[in-house]
Amino acid sequence: MDIHIYDSKHRRMRLFQPMDPNEVTIYVCGPTVYDQVHIGNGLSAVVFDVFVRFLRLVYPKVSYVRNITDIDDKIINAALDNDEPFDQLAERFTHAFHEDAAALHVLPPDVEPRPTLIIPKIISMIERLVDRGHAYVASGHVLFDVASFPEYGTLSNRTLEDMIDGARVEVAPYKKDPKDFVLWKPSNDVAGWDSPWGLGRPGWHIECSAMIHEHLGSTIDIHGAGSDLLFPHNENELAQGKCVEDGANYVNYWMHNGMLNISGRKMSKSLGNVLTIKALRDKYSGEAIRYAFLTGHYRQSLVWNERLLEQSVSSLDSLYRSLRLVSETTGSPELACNVFKDAPRESHSALLIEALADDVHTPRALAELHNIAKQIHLSDDDQERIDLRNQLLAGGWLLGLLNMTPSEYFQASAQLNVSAIEELVLQRDEARKNRDFERADAIRDELAANGIQIEDTPNGTRWSSIRN
Predict the structure, then answer these.
(1) What is the DSSP letter of 151?
(2) SS3 state of residue 218
(3) Interhelix angle for 362-378 vs 382-399, to 10°?
(4) For residue 443, how many other CB atoms are within 10 A of its CB?
(5) C-alpha distances in angstroms, 438 versus 81, 156, 302, 431, 444?
(6) Is 16 helix (H, G, I), strand (E, B) or coil?
């Protein structure tokens, strides 16, 4: 199967050709854990989770690394404000991120490295850059010499003249050039490690380069990140990664997801419109939040508002209602593999796969998922319904949706507890059996008043929560 992805460095769609067809390597920038993660972190985690699920359907092995940044100025400052050790704060918010990721049904990466666990590797990489003439020591700092790398700026499509001095880097008198960036900086024993240049800690950019080198090698197939990291973070990563040894390409394909737009404005701390996954989960299920992320193409800006979330809830309702017509089962990677391996050309399943092969086009994939659900309603053949159910569950698994049985899904938001609801349903069934329709209607009204909808079917009475 041909897979095409938009390569940020080449600024065009490219046919994906891994270095080794038996093992695809992919690295994604994870969060910096100084607070509850925001929905931008969630978007990136979900997008690349879908892409990795898809790649694993196509290739025998995918080695997926997503890091946690657990040492950074933001972490240290937050820890000082809270009067707690920086590593304790980082661990606390790492755990919070894991909870959010699990709620969004994001599968864990194969490896989740942290800079503090590979300090010797980072120091070794910096030493190599110094030895090769790409870095220098000044005032206890080690800095990358941007002028030593003529290709600098090719990822973000900027020339040295176009770049704004000091953009997200410190302008300091000890730098040869304001664009030179820190590889190692002096620190104290609160957050510092011994090094050839004294007690200190790594700069942000070298951390990702070292983690990639440590776990995946000098050149990888795919690097994913948010578009806000394109410059200077990923640009600096590329410079370090290519300069550390001869023949290293560092990354063959760069993928960047777009930003979220809230009420017509980019989400940012300065505007005070940062939304966290934790806060959203107080009102919406993780699955609904995930669905909302997938409604837009990952490279585009996604307008984020209550209407989008409510529409996502309604769309999930319709998928689960279709599934409920057939069975109370969930999907699996094995089912997805079996269904898509034999999917007839031009079938909805084949079109869903083609959508993901076309630069992870999740809106089209969702449309095909709903087309499969529609066919379940139209079919009156039991075997055909089972086949369609399998297609629905397989597609749902690839997108990280339909993770519950229909009963679990519709019971999750019920205002009454399950036993109370089922007791009332039984009483209503008994009243109807005795032709006491007035009592049956009264029970239906009581359930409706508590957010429960009753549906009489040939297979018995079903109930679900009523969405506002």
Answers:
(1) T
(2) coil
(3) 160
(4) 20
(5) 64, 70, 49, 8, 10
(6) coil
Give the closest residue to 446 by CA, choosing from 462, 412, 413, 423. 423
Give pLDDT tens digits for 9-38. Answer: 999 999 999 999 999 999 999 999 999 999
Contact predicate 175/142, CB 8 Å:
no
435: left (phi over 0), alpha (psi -120 to 50) or beta: left
Transcribe 280-317 into DSSP letters.
Answer: HHTTS-HHHHHHHHHTS-TTS-EEE-HHHHHHHHHHHH
Rounded to whole angstroms, the Cα distance separating 111 from 101 reads 15
3-state DSSP of 233-278: HHHHHHHHHHHCCCCCCEEEEEEEECCEEECCEECCCCCCCCCEHH
Distance set, CA 174 to CA 126, 140, 142, 170, 304 (Å): 18, 10, 10, 11, 43
Please give the Cα distance from 405 to 131 (Å, whole number).
59
Tens of pLDDT, residue by residue over 250-301, are: 999 999 999 998 866 776 666 667 899 999 998 899 999 999 999 999 999 9
5 phi-psi bin (left φ>0, alpha ψ -120 to 50, beta other): beta
Pull the structure tokens for residue 318. Answer: 């319709």
Q: Give helix 86-103 / helix 39-58 axis angle, nearest 10°.
A: 60
Q: How far lies 308's CA from each of 227, 277, 294, in Å?
A: 22, 15, 11
